[in-house]
Amino acid sequence: MIDSDISRKAFRKNWARLIQKIYHADPLLCPKCLESIRIISFIDDSEIIKKILKHLDLWEVRQRPPPRANAPPLNIHIDYADSQIPSYEDDLYCDPDYPIELYAS
User: Fold this and answer.
1) How far is it, in rounded angstroms, from Cα 73 to Cα 71?
2) pTM, 2 dp
């Protein structure tokens, strides 16, 4: 039991408001008939919770296998003839008075 200065009714309304704000669903509204519901019990004993979830077959969550990755093609050929990137020769500035060989020496 939680000791608080807030009354049980105020605490319940605050709890429902927070749940509604997070999940965008009213926890005190029946999803089938849309009538108002009330909490009649609150279980906080971990052993009882475990027992209930095991009975409902919800205790051990089965993990799905990871998705299979597609393998890359084995024979990859890249044709640079259609490349939009200019070759480095096109980008070089050549000064006719100063030959490229002088840069490299």
Assistant:
1) 6
2) 0.34
